[in-house]
Amino acid sequence: MIPMSLGDVAAAVGAVCHPRISQTVIRRVTTDSRDVQPGDLFFALRGPRFDGHQFTTQALAKGAVACVCDRRLDAAIESGPLLSVDDTLAALGHLAKHYRHTVLPVSTVVIAVTGSNGKTTTKCMIDHILSGEFKGRASPKSFNNAIGVPLTLLSADADDRYLVVEIGSNSPGEVAALAALVSPNVAVITSIGEAHLEGLGDLHAVAAEKTSLLRFVRPAGFAVVNVDRPEILPYLAVTSGTVGTAIARTRNQDADGGHCCANSGTRLLTFGVEQSAKLFVTRRRANLYGTAFELEGRHQIELPMPGAHHATNAAAAFAVARWFGVAPERIVERLRSFRPPQGRTELEEVGGVKIVDDAYNANPSSVHAAVETLRAAENGRRVLVLGDMLELGVDSAASHGRVIREAFEAGIEVLVAVGPATIAAARAQTPDRFGTEVHCCADVLSTNVLLDGLVVDGDTVWIKGSRGMQLDGVVRHLRCRMSEVGCRRSSPSTSHPPSAIPHPTSPGC
Fold first, then answer.
1. Cα distances (angstroms) measured from residue 320 to each of 2, 100, 304, 325
2. Rounded to an integer, what distance in angstroms lies between the CA atom of residue 484 and that of residue 383?
3. b/e for 378-406, b at 16 or more Cβ within 10 A?
4. Res. 225 pLDDT band, cuts 50 70 90
5. Three-state SS across 396-412?
6. Sheet holding 353-358, edge to edge
7. Which among 229, 302, 336, 493 could disulfide-bond with 498, CB atoms 3.0 to 4.6 Å apart, if both were Cys?
8. Per-residue pLDDT reduced to its tens digit, 129-164
């Protein structure tokens, strides 16, 4: 963070700062009292299970220069520097917006990434490529909400060449609210899919929510949008005048070009597996050890991670890196060394069992991608541990039914259904017709007990479910259990090079 005075912070958040401390400098912002370091500004946030105001004394004792608190709780703090505001979460957003528009130098390019699937992976790919050429940073983990996005903005330093921000949403208006803080130079929409339908409604509402990001792209900016789902196309034409008028123009431009249009409008670059996309993905090949594909029919790209769907994530990262002027050969090289973030198709071989940790989140399209990759596994049983896909609203039962049937039709030998929605869908099908062995578990604990007696040497176990299902606990348990007979990390570059992956008969997801 670029140091700021408490007086400037107070002005940004609408607080009154005592002259005695107005020149005190803050060097970092945090919302976690356990993480406080000397020189920090601590925001006391309220949550469903915590209240940061209970930890202000602890934060000050650890070296925080001041705390931002609700006005009505002034009396609860007997001593220590304090900035009083009406709403601490709103104040955090106000400070982040001020920092982005007033403090952060114009030389720092801010990249915003949103979408139904692949946000975190694409964000990490962009960061991995650009970090080989420039100093910069990306939001940690999945800092993509009203807390994480401001903290990401406030983490940027004066000499950062880039900052990658992830933006999430599960209800209308969230992307726009966060995009107003971010004010990106570059916007990336990774995908449109059946995610958070409980809050958003349908695919058209998802498209409207995600494309609202484009309204906040700065003049002469760059937008990279996946057009594999037709629902997104009408919103590209009406979301922003500059973006809408750029559609025809970009089709006649070099997709590798790293320059903006001559006018102040935003340049739009479409990508995807659809041939209508300017930056198109072809010849996707994938197995458990890696993914390979062609970009524009001329760039041969290899990823050391399973899942053909990652090809479009890499295409988005490729486009952003080219806009920065990174050479195609260098991008290909960096992608070859990329490793997925935790919980997103991480492959590990432990004690003779292949474990794919894909437990971070799930929706119908991402489960489809997992099934398509798992079906290509060889030498041993394919075991799919599938947890409920949450926040699907009225489409929940039908969506769970579709993914369960896909797993059966793919020939998955063993399905472990975790959670009421997945169990109901599995019981409504006829697995005997497909030869799939089905087990039903209510929670993580019962799943762990089942797997202890189910998994044998040679099995491939793919673990996937929505974050609320906490299937990362299954991953940790299985890894610990299998490690008793040894553990080795998979090596896609030596064991199964992606270039040797056979082309599937099905184009995948």
1. 25, 20, 20, 9
2. 20
3. eebbbbbbbbbbbbbeebbeebbbbbbbb
4. very high
5. HHHHHHHHHHHHHHCCC
6. 437-441, 414-418, 382-387, 460-464, 353-358, 346-350, 487-488
7. 302
8. 999 999 999 999 889 999 999 999 999 999 999 999
The 8-class DSSP code of residue 117 comes to S
Task: Give the CATH number of domain 346-488.
Answer: 3.90.190.20
Q: Coil, strand or helix: which one is 95?
A: helix
Judged on CB neighbours under 10 Å (0-12, 13-18, 19+), 336 is middle
Q: What are phi and psi of 354, to 5 degrees?
A: -90, 125
In tens, the pLDDT along 452-467 reads: 999 999 999 999 999 9
Give the chain's radius of gyration (CA, Å).
24
**Residue among 347, 359, 340, 350 at smallest CA distance from 289:** 347
Distance, CA of 259 to chain centre:
27
- In this structure, the dihedral spanned by the alpha carbons of residues 326, 330, 331 and 337, taken in order and rounded to 10 degrees, is -140
- Dump the DSSP string for 225-271: EE-SSGGGHHHHHHS-HHHHTHHHHHTTS-TT-----SSSSPEEEEE
Q: What does DSSP assign to residue 492?
A: T
In this prediction, residue 202 carries a pLDDT of 84
User: What average pLDDT does this structure show over 269-284?
Assistant: 93
Q: Around Cβ 231, how many Cβ atoms within 10 Å?
A: 16
Sorted by where each begins, the domain ranges of the chain are: 4-87, 104-272, 346-488
Which CATH code, of 1.10.290.10, 1.20.210.10, 3.40.30.10, 3.40.1390.10, is assigned to 4-87? 3.40.1390.10
Strand 460-464 relative to strand 382-387, pairing: parallel
CATH superfamily, region 104-272: Mur-like, catalytic domain (3.40.1190.10)
β-pairing, 414-418 vs 382-387, is parallel
What lies within 8 Å, CB to CB, of 348 at 6+ separation is 354, 355, 357, 479, 487, 489, 490
DSSP state of 34: G
The whole-angstrom separation of Cα 238 and Cα 244 is 6
Alpha-carbon distances of 125 from 70, 92, 95, rounded to whole Å: 39, 28, 28
Closest CA to 32 of 178, 143, 156, 169: 143
DSSP letters spanning 343-383: TSSEEEEETTEEEEEE-S---HHHHHHHHHHHTT--SS-EE
The Cα 202–Cα 27 span in angstroms is: 43
